[in-house]
Each structure stands twice: as structure tokens, then as C-alpha cells.
Amino acid sequence: MKRNERFEALAAGYLFPEVGRRRKAFQEAHPEAKIISLGIGNTTEPLTPHVEDALVAAARRLGTAAGYSGYGDEQGEAALREAIARVHYSGAVRPEEVFVSDGAKCDIGRLQILFGSCAAVVQDPAYPVYVDGSIIQGASLVYMPCTRENGFMPELSVIPAGSLVYFCSPNNPTGAVATRDQLARLVAEVRRKKSILVFDAAYSEYVSEPSLPRSVYEVDGAAECAIEVNSFSKPIGFTGVRLGWSVAPKALKYDDGRSVNADWNRIATTLFNGASNIAQAGGLASFDPEGRSEMRGLVGYYMENARLIRSALQALGVECIGGDNAPYIWARFPGRDSWEVFGEILEKCHVVTTPGSGFGPSGQSYIRFSAFGHRESVVEAAGRLARLGR
Ligand code: PLP
Questions:
Q1: Minimal CA–CA distance to 198: which of 272, 104, 89, 80?
Q2: Which end of the chain has the lower number of beta carbons within 10 A, N or C?
């Protein structure tokens, strides 16, 4: 059996294993160092009580003859699809357009199977799965640089006709959030180019400013050109539990008028067997008033971390974006190599970060700080950042 030749095209070594390797090497050389990670975007705080109760109750039901259930609908449980449509989208999408899944990353991978070897347009820097998953599918890539000069909103004219456009807002890694006008321009350009938009809204619950959009469907015309993916990972700490969803509007059509929703349903039923019924019970609980309130508390906790990190960096005169409506801070170190700055922060502060260049060439000279961490570690790390100024 020959190796799939597309694997040769993947960039060698994945960013986070390399970060891990450097961290380990530093720890071995300095066993006394108490390293704090503000690196990967993994949640750290426990599940909230109401959601935890729902998960436990669902698991217990499965242990009873009356409450046991096996496979469910591949598209997700009706009550959860309905709650997502009603609560998250305030009725802007219909339950039959919502597909519950085991997470946004898994949905992105299956969307890449759905669209195959098309032209794929990605923001640079970008969350790595858009690029690597496209390469595995044999898609050709077009990069849209998101830089300080363009205010992290890319030039859209580069979008080729008939392509798949990935857009993430609030953005990982830059923390930038597209305004309603910017999203309207994106939607208009994607429609003009007869393309399809995959809008990654995994951090939508981190948007606190009322004027900023949380969903692409807040923009007119988006239902005719956009699929949205979202996740329970970051708002309610389901990174390990695994639960997400996608929206494929019925109005979204291929160039020949056929339904994208119907093909997405086919992918869900063919390659996926439904999200865990226990996880779905937890996700459903997060939509009732108690669940909403707990979710806001958890998001607020991480956003206070973001504020602490950003203030510490700004006190040193480091220019930052993000950290206000997103749990990432994108810090600029002009003229410097990202890995070199990563090394300096590790050596002087014993803090692990993520080098911006790992997310794409436009990330060079940036460092991503993640706000996911225990408060005491974040306070300690923020204090240690002052050593960078010495
Ligand atoms: N999309 C973005 C932009 C992310 O940053 C992440 C996780 O870090 C995901 C998707 C993955 O979400 P999930 O845990 O639901 O697979």
C-alpha cells in the first residue's frame, strides 16, 4: 500500500507538538522552573453544576430499562436542534438546518470531504485544520493575509470564483472580531464569486459588545452562501466531552440549484453516527436559563484572564489585539522572529505561549497568548511577563 501522496504536502511537524518539545527540553534543562502554559486553547475550569447534573442524569438514565436508548438521529436530538435554533439563533435558522456533532473541528473535516478538491481560501494566520484538511483533500489553497495594516480584515478580491472560503470570527489566533459591515462585505463577495463560506463561530459566546455579530446569519443573504460551525467546547468547557453543531441552510444551493443541506445530511448519515446522547443532554441544559447563566459566568472567568494578560503586555508597551471579545491575545513584537520571542518568554518568564508564525506566514513577529488557565496561574504568569521589560 502506497502512502497517500497528499501527506507529503503537509508541513512537517504540527505546531503544538513542537511547542511541547521545546517546553520539555527547557524543563529538563531547568528542573526547578515552574512553567505556566498560556499556549494551547484548552479549557481548564470544571463543568458548571447544572450542566454536570444533566450529564450525570443522562448517564444514569442509560442504566435503566425505561431510560436506555441506543443510536439516535445522526443529525442530533430534536430538542437540542430546536434549542440551538431558538436560543442561539433567536429563530434566524430552523431546527432542520441544524446538525449536532462531536465538535467543530470534526465538522470542518467532514465539510472538507463534502466539498473535496476545490479551491480553498483561508485567512493567514489561521486555525490549522482549514489548511491541513484542505491539503489532505487535494484542495488548492489561496491565502488572505490578515495584518495590522488591513486591521486583520483581509482583502476579499483574491477569492476565486466557485471556491470554499473559511472565515473565523472571533478569530483564532488573532482575537479579531469582524464588524457587521465587514461581514456584510464578506457575504456580498462570496455571493458575487458564487462561492460557499464556512463561517467558524466557535468563540461566538465570547463576543460581549452588542454591536458585534455572533453569527454570520445576522447578515442579509448569508443563508444563501454560508455554512456555520460552532462548538460547546469553549463556552461550557466541553473540549473533552465533545459536542458542536453546524448549520446548513435550506437556501444554500450549488451552482446547479441542488441542495447543500441534502448532501450535508448524506455526509452526516454516511460518515457520522450522531453525537453522544449524554453530551447532548449536557448541551441541552446549557440552553435553559440556569445553563445560560453558568455559561456567562465561565466565559466571564476566562475573559477576566484575558484582561489580566493584555494589561500586563500593554504595561510593557506591547501592542495587542484581541482579548476583549475573544479569549486570545495577539501580541506584536516588531522585527522579531516568533519562535525567538517564544524562547525568550519561556526562558525569562517560564511561560509557554504559541508562536504566531505557526499559524501562517502573516503570524511572523506575533505571539498568541491564550486566556484558558486557572486564575492563580494567569495572575502569576502576568506578573512574570514584567521580566520581559528588563
Ligand atoms: N474552531 C476554532 C477556531 C477553534 O479554535 C477550535 C478549537 O480550538 C475549534 C474550531 C475546535 O472545536 P471543537 O472542540 O468543537 O472541535
A1: 104
A2: N
Cell for 20? 511541547
Phi-psi region of 247 (alpha: psi -120 to 50; beta: other; left: phi over 0): beta
Ligand 1 pocket, 127 CB below 6 A? Answer: yes
* Axis crossing angle, helix 375-384 with helix 289-315, rounded to the nearest 10: 10
Do 77 and 100 meet the contact criterion of CB atoms below 8 Å apart? yes
Q: Is the CB of 202 under 6 A from ligand 1?
A: yes
Pocket test for ligand 1, best of 99, 127, 199, 230 (most atoms within 8 A of CB): 127
Task: Render pLDDT for 246-299 as a digit per residue (tens, 0 to 9).
Answer: 999 999 999 999 999 999 999 999 999 999 999 999 999 999 999 999 999 999
CA of 380 to the centre of ligand 1 (A): 27
pLDDT at 253: 98
Distance between CA 343 and CA 39 in Å, rounded?
Answer: 13
The pTM score is 0.97
Q: Could you give the CA distance from residue 275 to residue 287 in angstroms, rounded to a whole number?
A: 17
Whether the per-residue pLDDT at 76 is higher than 80: the answer is yes
Judge if the beta carbon of residue 166 lies within 6 A of ligand 1: no
CA distance 161 to 188: 13
Ligand 1 centre to CA of 128 (Å) is: 10
Distance 105 CA to ligand 1 centre (A): 5
104 lines ligand 1 (CB under 6 A): yes
